[in-house]
Amino acid sequence: MSANPNFVMTGPARRVWMPRFLRGRPALVCGGALLIVLVIIAIASPWLTASAQAISPLNRLRPPSANLWFGADQLGRDIYARTLQGARVSLVVGVSVALLSAFIGLVLGVVCGFYRRIDMVVMRFMDALMAIPSILLAIALTTLVRGGMLLVIVAITVPQIPNVVRLVRSVVLTLRSQPYVIAAIAAGTRQPLIMVRHIVPNALSPLIVQATYVCASAILTEAGLSFIGAGVPPEVPSWGNIIAGARSYFQIAPWAIFFPGIGLALTVLAVNLLGDGLRDSLDPRASRRL
């Protein structure tokens, strides 16, 4: 039986090679693929590069070459090794902040949407947090209590919680008026069971999309904090402190800033593309149009 060049897969075979939720979703495909590559690079960076802290005065501010792919910084350290290992810090901080803020925001948002007395107290506190610029609040927290990466994660998470709480609360208030929730209340179902069975599953879609944007914002915030010296310790390679250390040598060694800057931009772009793709895929109205 000869092969047909015009053969097009249908049925189960087509679903394997082209899942339906990926059709017409270039942002989701590109963002997900790029993010997977960055995660693999971050995980494998200790085996792909030499030590990021090794100082070589002979290589000081040496441009990119066959031995130093991204060049060397002002102390002769390999920028390629520091850039790849800096990806681990950014991804760990971004994912951790997204998960923490999503979990806390989900719990507080669901509770506020169901209990009006708690809602009045919690939402006024959220409004107070939102009145303070997030970067200033993060700087204040890291300055008052200096610590490591854990403190940086907490300091970035706190300003992100109000946005997530407000989002989940608005979804819960909408879901409370749905017929199936009203029927469950009329049947005498306990409120905690209604939250777990009917509210939380329907609030996960917008929460997942919001978490991707929180992740991108956290990566940028961590880079900004490290740039001004309020982020991770200097001995930990981070895109922010790599750029900060090389800013005085920008005119004679632009590669010391260019490569970590490209890594930061690509990571934020990948996360934002993934968030846009998930938003379109999880939107029922967009799904019906396809």
Write the layout of secondary structure elements.
Blueprint: H1 12-17, H2 26-48, H3 79-114, H4 116-130, H5 134-144, H6 149-175, H7 179-186, H8 191-227, H9 239-246, H10 255-282, H11 284-289
Please characterize this protein's 3D structure.
With 290 residues, the protein is mainly alpha-helical. The chain has one domain (24-49, 71-281): MetI-like fold, CATH 1.10.3720. The protein is built from eleven helices and no strands. The longest helix has 37 residues, at 191-227. It is found in: Cell membrane. The chain crosses the membrane at residues 91-115, 135-158, 252-275.
Give the beta-strand count: 0
Largest sheet data? none
Instruction: Work out the helix count.
Output: 11
CATH architecture: Orthogonal Bundle
Give the total of domains. 1
The fraction of residues in strands falls at under 5%
Tell me, rounded to a whole number, the average pLDDT. 81
CATH topology: MetI-like fold
CATH superfamily (homologous) name: MetI-like
- Helical proportion, percent range: over 70%
- Catalogue the unreliable spans: 1-18
In whole angstroms, how far apart are the ends? 35 Å
Q: How would you classify the helix and strand content by structural class?
A: mainly alpha
Shape label: elongated
- Computed over alpha carbons, the radius of gyration is 23 Å
Name the CATH class. Answer: Mainly Alpha
